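Why should sequence recovery work at all? Because a backbone constrains its sequence more than one might expect. Tight turns favour small or flexible residues, buried strands favour hydrophobic ones, and helices have their own preferences. The token representation captures these environments compactly. In the example below, the structure is given first.
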């Protein structure tokens, strides 16, 4: 095994990936499984999760993560079904409103924070005792460039707040849990094509907006973001904790 292979080898490790029924989460689950991990995949769409498990093995754990009362069932299901999780990738996320900030309904703000910020926190609390007893762990949250900069023309105030909150949570958990060798990081992607962003890419106006604002002359893909997730989950990232790593084709560098 080369040094590079060893650094990204997940043999024998148990991972939880949320948002694995599509997009980035599905890509991360596939790559972790392809590098040896046994992966518990989480999302609402059970058939999608079952199909993925048929392809990569592991365990399907259907759950609506926007309901804080249900999130606590995820980690026990994984530890019973696969064993103690050493890796948690919080990729599930979404928006509940497209309204401008002044008009965002309270329920949408609350649902956004529940799914994008509270669920990753609750899942981190859930995996903590397992990671502490194993003596190591890696948690990777998925935020967004909108947690760092405003995105003109696409109103997303509660989404931006939830994603920025992940960076604060990340730094705090990293400092509290470092003594247990549990690393906590966040990946902040720029735009890539997925179910969430599909409509933006379809229209001429949306795709030229994205091209104009992305210095690299390529379109981002889930796989471009998975590289950073794998690095942070694996031994390649063993000295990295508390960070928010931006993967955005240069959007925020301008
Ligand atoms: N695409 C982009 O340009 C972009 C940019 C920056 C950040 N991100 C972030 O990247 C992450 C992945 O998004 P994506 O672009 O890959 O979009 P996607 O394909 O729509 O994936 C979103 C995932 O989240 C899951 N999810 C949504 N609501 C959920 C709920 N209530 N409970 C459980 N799971 C739920 C969905 O599964 P179910 O529908 O089966 O529940 C799906 O698997 C998100 O956190 C997103 O905010 C995306």
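From this structural description, the recovered sequence reads:
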């Amino acid at each position: 095994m080369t040094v590079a292979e060893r650094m990204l080898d997940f043999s024998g490790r148990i991972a939880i990936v949320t948002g694995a029924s599509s997009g980035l989460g599905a890509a991360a689950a596939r790559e972790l499984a392809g590098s040896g991990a046994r992966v518990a995949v989480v999302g609402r769409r059970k058939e999608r999760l079952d199909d993925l498990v048929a392809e990569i093995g592991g365990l399907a754990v259907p759950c609506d993560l926007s309901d804080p009362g249900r999130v606590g069932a995820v980690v026990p299901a994984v530890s019973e079904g696969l064993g103690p999780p050493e890796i948690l990738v919080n990729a599930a996320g979404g928006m509940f409103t497209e309204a401008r900030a002044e008009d965002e309904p309270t329920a949408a703000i609350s649902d956004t924070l529940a799914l994008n910020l509270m669920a990753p926190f609750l899942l981190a609390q859930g995996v903590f005792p397992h990671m502490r007893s194993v003596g190591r762990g890696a948690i990777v949250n998925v935020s967004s460039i909108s947690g760092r900069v405003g995105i003109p023309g696409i109103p997303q105030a509660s989404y931006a707040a939830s994603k920025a909150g992940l960076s604060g949570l990340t730094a705090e958990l990293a400092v509290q849990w470092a003594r247990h060798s549990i690393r906590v990081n966040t990946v902040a992607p720029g735009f890539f094509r997925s179910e969430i962003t599909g409509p933006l890419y379809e229209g001429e106006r949306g795709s030229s907006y994205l091209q104009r604002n992305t210095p690299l002359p390529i379109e981002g893909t889930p796989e471009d973001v998975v590289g950073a997730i794998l690095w942070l989950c694996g031994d390649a990232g063993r000295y990295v904790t508390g960070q928010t790593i931006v993967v955005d084709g240069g959007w925020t560098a301008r």
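A few observations help interpret the result. The chain has a mean pLDDT of 97.
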